Amino acid sequence: MPTLTRYIAVLVILASIAYGTMFALVTYVDPATRQMGYPISDDRFNR
Asked: Residue 16 falls within a domain, yes or no?
């Protein structure tokens, strides 16, 4: 049974690290937003 407890503890620690990393990325990193627009030629619509 100690092996199962150790396995679960390692999984909890890894999940905590992943969650902390995602939380830090969401909190501290602002994505660069910009206007996206691409011209489309009329040939694609006149088929």
From this structure: yes
